[in-house]
């Protein structure tokens, strides 16, 4: 399944807080902190992305709200749903809020509530182990080494040094990454994007109302596609069909991209499946185009406040685009059962 929505929705406000281990904050605190500087006078609908609030025991009490839970793709889906609501006339001005409080949960708990299919979970599989299988197959087919994978994460940390909102805005060498404990061969601890707390918000309006606001950019297209939930049923372990289906619908030149680098292998696959590089050549492309791919530092260095990530990616892309340029964000649910690509124009 592949769905495409084209639009020209003005983005009139954005707000972002630095992701991290925010032990002294609950979900309500995070929401207040991200919206306190926004003017919500004209907002008549709210779309909230959140994954873990039920697991942490907190409830979201926001009137006139649609709540979206699609794991790592939640924020991107919330943007799509808000835009569709504006286009259909159901609302005139909407806030999209991604918020997550993940550090209250243990790693075991996070694994248990992941959306892996029952047959994979019953065999002891985790999201990390499934991406590790993809990494092993990719290394075998294309000849890259563990040091190359580690260098992907290292480059994202270097990019993040210019980003005041990055959780880890500091250098991290490939050597240090390879010395960290193994999570699932060949993925090391310091190659994994951290589960973080955080929030991000975008306010959009109907095009007819744009003249009343200072427009920061436009949300121009949203593409979603699905694949088998069970990785064993998929056509390939070195490509994610859901992302490839989205890529086939992209008709404009992309200048900036924030892609889903929950692990280095997921970034490499995204760059190839989106059509930026040929199979096996993603790492070379990223090194030559470090200002294009995950210039923010990606999930690895910005932190992964899961449901807030897709909204954070949109804000980062918009902030880096020049006039008339297009940028995209790419998110996954699970290990690739769902891919969401959103496109923006400055």
User: How many β-strands, per DSSP?
Assistant: 11
**Regarding CATH, which class?**
Alpha Beta
Compressed to H and E, one letter per element, the order equals EHEHEHEHHHHHEEEEHEHHHHEE
Q: Gyration radius, to the nearest Å? A: 19 Å
What's the helical proportion of residues? 25-40%
| Integer tally of domains | 1
Mean pLDDT over all positions = 92
| Share of β-strand residues | 15-25%
Query: What distance lies between the first and last C-alpha atoms, to the nearest angstrom?
Result: 29 Å
Individual helix count: 13
Output the CATH topology.
Peroxisomal Thiolase, Chain A, domain 1
Shape: globular
CATH homologous superfamily assignment: Thiolase/Chalcone synthase
Major beta sheet, strand line-up: 3-2-4-7-1-8-11-10-9
Please identify, by name, the CATH architecture: 3-Layer(aba) Sandwich
Low-pLDDT segments, ≥5 res: none
Regarding quaternary structure, what we see is single chain
Pairing-aware structural class of the strands and helices? alpha/beta
Please outline the major beta sheet: 9 strands, mixed
How would you concisely characterize the structure shown here?
By secondary structure, this protein is α/β, with parallel strands linked by helices.
